[in-house]
Amino acid sequence: MLAKIAAVFRASFRGCTTHVLSAYLGSAFRVCSPASLAWAAPVQQTFSDWLVTCNNQNFCVTRNVGLHYGLVMTLSRSAGAATDASLRIELGGVGNPVAALAPIGPRLLLDGKPLALVDKRWQVADKLLKTGDSATIDAFLQQVQEGQVISLVDGLQTISLQGLKAALLFIDSRQKRGRQRKRRGLAKAKSRRSASAGAGAAHGGESRRIAIAAEPR
């Protein structure tokens, strides 16, 4: 491939030195490389008690860190319009005294108050709650991101929420998700306007038909 490119450029740059031509070709190849166009640099960043890791294709994972005593929440989310997302809350750790007790789902607290998970798209096991439904994940994050801590009844286990909102904003920015939300919002608004205009036209047509029928013959 480079040989063909070189032949084209030699024809266009007759009289240039070999050194100048080689430097130009090397620069052009780097700019046109698919990897440089499609991939971003991997990144890892901490926001208070939350760690975010994104790979070079902007698949991002965030989880709580620090003194959680085995209660961990993990969110993973892909970039792009077709979002592949997963959220897990799990209890682990060797010798955990509450691991053999009741399932963790009914015992979760948000800032000391019961954290109800009413959506049926949660998969519930004794020590694990998870869902891959994007709408359920978004609703849950909206519910908890302004809070302080998720904890367990009768346990030391905690998920600090300090830094969660900043971590989510970082992922949104990394994956350019704000632009996607704006486009979806504009599309929904346009759809609502079209539906409203259609309903108005139908109502106007019905009114005209009634008026015509009421006219004396």
TrEMBL record:
<protein>
    <submittedName>
        <fullName>Protein of uncharacterized function (DUF1176)</fullName>
    </submittedName>
</protein>
<feature type="region of interest" description="Disordered">
    <location>
        <begin position="179"/>
        <end position="217"/>
    </location>
</feature>
<feature type="signal peptide">
    <location>
        <begin position="1"/>
        <end position="40"/>
    </location>
</feature>
<feature type="compositionally biased region" description="Basic residues">
    <location>
        <begin position="179"/>
        <end position="193"/>
    </location>
</feature>
<dbReference type="Pfam" id="PF06674">
    <property type="entry name" value="DUF1176"/>
</dbReference>
<keyword id="KW-0732">Signal</keyword>
<dbReference type="InterPro" id="IPR009560">
    <property type="entry name" value="DUF1176"/>
</dbReference>
